[in-house]
């Protein structure tokens, strides 16, 4: 037998009436939501910092900025920069389908070296590394804003001026939702 559940859904007018009766104001609700968001951001920041220190993270990008300032909003599942131990992956897929990686862009893999992390006086964290691979030689710089897991990553290729910046959320690898295409 299938179990059935039933619950009451209140209209906006009923919700407003209940708030008046309980003495809760919209301002109190907003303050509570703001505090909950601040707490979640704090948790996300701690997870991001730990994943940087463990060298096991992914930046899922939802925006790319190219060398001349052109910008594109992209799918974070297929646009990312990751590091697992000393193995780095940079994947750019701003188009749907095709491309060398089969998903609309390129996937570059390499070995990370000269990894450094520092935090400035304002609490922003900078994580830098050099990545060398068959199709990639670049300096990669992550900038993690204080109190959040929002970050930017600048990939500056050594042999060309085709710098690209990824903007998105820095997550532990186990929480990432990415799809890796074929690498060069």
Provide a short characterization of the protein structure:
With 184 residues, this protein is an alpha+beta fold.
Class by helix and strand content? alpha+beta
Instruction: Write down the overall geometry.
Output: elongated
Sheet with the most strands: spatial strand order: 1-3-4-5-6-7-8-9
Radius of gyration: 21 Å
Gap between N and C termini: 54 Å
Percent strand = 35-45%
- String of helices and strands: HHEEEEEEEEE
In total, the number of strands is 9
Rounded mean pLDDT is: 89
How many helices in DSSP terms?
Answer: 2
- Please summarize the sheet with the most strands: 8 strands, antiparallel, barrel
Low-confidence stretches: none
Oligomer: single chain
Helix percentage range: 10-25%
Q: What does this molecule look like?
A:
Strands 1-3-4-5-6-7-8-9 form an 8-stranded antiparallel barrel. It has 2 helices and 9 strands; from the N terminus they run H-H-E-E-E-E-E-E-E-E-E. The protein is of the alpha+beta class and 184 residues long. The mean pLDDT is 89.
């Amino acid at each position: 037998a299938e179990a059935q559940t039933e619950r009451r859904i209140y209209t906006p007018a009923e919700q407003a009436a209940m708030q008046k009766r309980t003495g809760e104001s919209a301002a109190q609700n907003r303050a509570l939501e703001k505090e909950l968001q601040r707490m979640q951001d704090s948790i996300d920041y701690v997870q991001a910092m730990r994943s940087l220190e463990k060298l096991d993270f992914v930046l899922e990008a939802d925006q790319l900025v190219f060398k001349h300032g052109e910008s594109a909003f992209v799918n974070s599942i297929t646009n990312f920069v990751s590091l697992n131990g000393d193995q780095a992956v940079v994947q750019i897929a701003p188009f749907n389908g095709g491309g060398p990686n089969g998903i609309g862009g390129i996937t570059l893999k390499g070995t990370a070296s000269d990894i450094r992390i520092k935090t400035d006086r304002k609490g922003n964290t900078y994580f830098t590394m050099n990545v060398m691979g068959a199709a990639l030689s670049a300096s990669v710089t992550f900038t993690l804003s204080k109190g959040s897991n929002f970050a930017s990553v600048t990939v500056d290729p050594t042999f060309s001026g085709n710098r690209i910046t990824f903007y998105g959320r820095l997550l532990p690898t186990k929480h990432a939702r990415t799809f890796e295409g074929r690498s060069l």
